[in-house]
Amino acid sequence: MKFKIALIISLIAITACKKEENYASFGNKITTDNVITNTEMAEIFKNLQMGDTLEVKFNATINQVCKKKGCWMKLDLGDGQESMVTFKDYGFFMPLNAANREVIVNGKAFVKETTVEELRHFAKDAGKSEKEIDSITQPKYTYAFEADGVLMKK
Predict the structure, then answer these.
(1) pLDDT for 26-37, tens place per residue?
(2) CATH number attached to the domain at 24-153
(3) What is the pTM of this model?
(4) E-assigned strand segments in the chain
(5) What pairing do the DSSP bridges indicate for beta strands 54-65 and 23-27?
(6) Where in the chain are the domains?
(7) What is the tens place of the pLDDT at every residue in 113-126?
C-alpha cells in the first residue's frame, strides 16, 4: 500500500514538473500559472494611459526579434497590433531565431511614445534598408512591455 501511495505521489510530481520542462527559461524564473491571452492583453493595452504601468503575464507569438543581439522582440497581439518587449536591466536576450515561437512574458506593460531615434535604432536592428530607416520621421505610440522573465515553448 505504501508503495502504491509513493508511486502515485511520484507520478503527480513528475507530471506537475513536466509542464515547465516544455519551455526554455530566460531571465527570472516564472511559471505558466495565471497567464492571460494575447488578445486579452491587447484590450488591456487599449485602456492604458501614458504613465500607467501594470504587472502582468501573457502569452503570444513572437513576430520579430532583434537580429543583432536578441535584445528586444515584438509580440503579436492580434488584429495587426504588436507589443514591443525589452528586457529588464538589459539582463537577458532571446535567441536570434526565435521568431514565430510561442512565449509567456512576465513584467510591466505600459504605453509610451517611442522617439524617431529609437524607432530608427529598432529598424536598423531589425535589418531594415536605409530607405526604410530614413522614412521614419514621426514618433509613435507603442504598446511597450519590460519583461523580467520569459518562457519560450520548445
Answers:
(1) 999 999 999 999
(2) 2.40.50.110
(3) 0.81
(4) 23-27, 54-65, 72-78, 81-87, 102-114, 140-153
(5) unpaired
(6) 24-153
(7) 999 999 999 899 88
